[in-house]
Every structure is written in C-alpha cells, then in structure tokens.
Amino acid sequence: MSARLIDGKATAARVLAEVAGDVAALKARGIEPALAVVLVGSDPASQVYVRNKVLRAGEVGIRSLEYRLGAEASAAEVLEVVEGLNADASVHGILVQLPLPAHISETQVLQAIDPAKDVDGFHSENVGGLSQGRPVLTPCTPAGCMRLLRDTLGDLAGKHAVVVGRSNIVGKPMAALLLAADCSVTVLHSRSVKPQRLCGQADIVVAAVGRPRMIDADWIKPGAVVIDVGINRIEDDGRSRLVGDVDSDAVQPVASAITPVPGGVGPMTIAMLMHNTVTAARQQHSPSAQE
Ligand code: NDP
Questions:
Q1: Among 148, 167, 205, 234, which residue has the most ligand 1 atoms within 8 Å of its CB, making it the best to mutate?
Q2: Quick check: is 228 catalytic?
Q3: Torsion, CA 136, CA 282, CA 140, CA 266, rounded to 10
Q4: Distance 230 CA to ligand 1 centre (A)
Q5: What radius of gyration, in Å, describes the C-alpha atoms of the chain?
Q6: ipTM over 0.95
Q7: Which of 22, 117, 118, 120 is catalytic?
Q8: Which residues are listed for NADP(+) binding in this entry (predicted)?
Q9: Please, which pLDDT band fits residue 291 given cuts at 50, 70 and 90?
Q10: CA 10 to chain centre
Q11: Which residue has the least CA distance to atom 34 on ligand 1?
Q12: How many helices (H) and strands (E) are present in the chain, helices listed first?
C-alpha cells in the first residue's frame, strides 16, 4: 500500500475560487471586502507571509491594506493602529502578523482586535466560542486541515483523532474542531508518556510539533489519514529544503492518505484566511445572520 497524497494546492484553489465568487456577490451588493495586515519589524519570514497574503487577497478581489511599523515601535503605537482599524467600517478583517517584537505583548495586541474582524481567530472571544461550538472566526491552519480531512474522509464522526502538539494557534483549535466534528480526540505534547502507542491507535493524525520528521511509521496505524502541519527548514546534502513533522517516506507505505510538505496544509492556511475575511465582511453587513 502507498498513501494517497492529499493535494492541498488543488483544494486551496477550489476554496479560493469559492471565495472569489463570494467576493463578487458582496461587491454586487456594494460591499468591498477588505483585509488589513499589520507587520511590526522586519522578520524575513513574516515579510514573505505578509506579501503572500496581500497577493492572494488581490487575486480573489479582496482589497488589502498594509501597515508596516519599525521593530522599535511601542505597544501603544501598534494598539493605535489596531484601534483605528477597528473603528474603520470599510475594513472587515484585521491580521497582526506574529511574532511581534519581544517588548510587545502579543496577548494585549490580539485582545485589542475587534472579535468580529479577528480573521486569525485568536481573540479569546473567538477561542471561547470555538470551544463552545458556536459559529465563530476559526484559526486558519486548523480550519484548512478540517477541509482537507472532510474532502478525504467525508463524515468524521466516531473517528479517533490524535493531535500531536497543543499550541494556541494549531494544536488546541484543531482538537476543538475535531471534537465539534464528533471525533474522539487525544492531544499529545512534550510531556506525553508513550506517545507512539497512543498515536498508533488513531484513524486521523494531525502533526503540529515543529520537529523535522519526528513522526515515523511506528506512530501510525495502517490505513490512518495523516495531516502534516509542520514546516521545518533543514540542510540536506548541502541543500536547504522544507520537511514536515512526519517522516513522509517512512509513513507513506502505512498510511492511507497524507499531506505533502510543501503543498499540503500550507496553501490551505492562506485560502482559509481569505475565506474568513469574506465571512467577516458578510457578517458585518448582516450581523444577525448565522454562518
Ligand atoms: P509550537 O512550538 O507553538 O508548539 C509545538 C507543540 O509541539 C507544543 O505543544 C509542544 O508541547 C509539542 N511538542 C514538542 N515536542 C514534542 C514531542 N517530542 N512530542 C510531542 N509533542 C511535542 O508550534 P506551532 O503549533 O506553532 O507549529 C507547529 C508546526 O507547524 C511548526 O513546524 C510550524 O512551522 C508549523 N506551522 C505550519 C503552518 C502552516 O500554515 N502549514 C501554520 C502554523 C504552524 P508542549 O506544549 O508540551 O511544549
């Protein structure tokens, strides 16, 4: 057996086509969805992420605004930008690119974003809503993983899902979404005992650890579906390349389907950001509507 590769690029293209249709429908009602991206400092990876988000927004017809502040900007200056965007009715989504410089509290800045415009889904009101099963703006990477899982497996009810990693941006919201989809969910982390044994019982494995190729065939039950969120840059034969948290070569003969790195979860994250921006725009123009 060799696992089917789950094509995140193709699924992301479908999501973006749906979003472009939704944008056109909103524009026909006189609403132009707009996403503001705030970048503080000059972290090279963050600059690439911001550039890609702005490009993708343009491709689907979403207006984007960029706010760039120097690494020495104070928390008060960042908060002033966020508050200005909160008050601007023509802006529907606000994204503050993480990480922020060490002297600025990420929690304080994220909590300052109007929850209705919080397209990253990191505000505690959205986090709480997700854990209560309310329809809220949901973190983009886990939302993208769910779309890939539903496309691969259909109904997820009753499946045993293991999430490896418990970060606020991936692991925890992923577990909440799987639970909301009626999976039985186990979350593993750095203090878990015998993680391979627990993971080896899973029908679905979501790896979000940040350790190159940590999860090998010993962790995977035959036929499991594996979603590899990890993006790790390694040196291989003198070349720099990206690998996931899963040892894909070792796992492919065991799993039934697996996301490649790159080309799996990565393209979905940005597609779901566009989806969230359109959702936010629609809701802000019909606040009583439930998605
Ligand atoms: P974090 O570093 O915030 O969290 C890593 C998690 O992995 C922690 O909960 C940690 O446990 C757990 N962990 C560490 N070592 C082990 C171990 N040996 N066994 C089990 N669990 C372990 O990372 P993120 O969640 O932010 O990101 C995870 C990966 O996903 C990274 O490679 C990142 O680059 C990638 N990523 C990809 C995205 C995409 O768009 N594709 C988006 C976001 C992230 P503990 O809590 O105990 O420390």
A1: 167
A2: no
A3: 160
A4: 7
A5: 19
A6: yes
A7: 120
A8: 165-167, 231
A9: very low
A10: 17
A11: 231
A12: 10, 11
Q: Which residues line ligand 1 (CB under 6 A)?
A: 141, 164-167, 169-171, 188-192, 195, 208-211, 229-232, 245, 265-266, 269
Residue 96 sits at φ, ψ, to 5 deg, of -100, 115
CA-closest residue to ligand 1 atom 42: 141
Residue nearest to atom 40 of ligand 1 (CA): 266
Residue whose structure tokens are 């529907």: 92
Q: Is 287 helix (H, G, I), strand (E, B) or coil?
A: coil
Over residues 51-71, the pLDDT tens digits come to: 999 999 999 999 999 999 999
Query: Is pLDDT of 287 > 70?
Result: no
The DSSP H or E segment spanning 207 is strand 204-207
How confident is the model at residue 255, as a pLDDT? 98
Half-sphere exposure of 3 (CA within 13 A, CB side): 27
Which domains does the chain carry?
30-115 (3.40.50.10860), 140-266 (3.40.50.720)
Name residues whose C-beta falls within 8 Å of residue 51's C-beta, 6 or more positions apart in sequence: none
Strands 34-40, 4-5: parallel, antiparallel or unpaired by DSSP? unpaired
pLDDT in tens, 31-47: 999 999 999 999 999 99
Backbone angles phi, psi at 114, to 5 degrees: -55, 120
Confidence band, pLDDT 50/70/90 cuts, at residue 288: low
Question: Is 56 assigned to a binding site?
Answer: no
Catalytic residue among 53, 117, 159, 172, which? 53
Centroid of ligand 1 to alpha carbon of 171 (angstroms) = 7
Catalytic residue list contains 194 = no
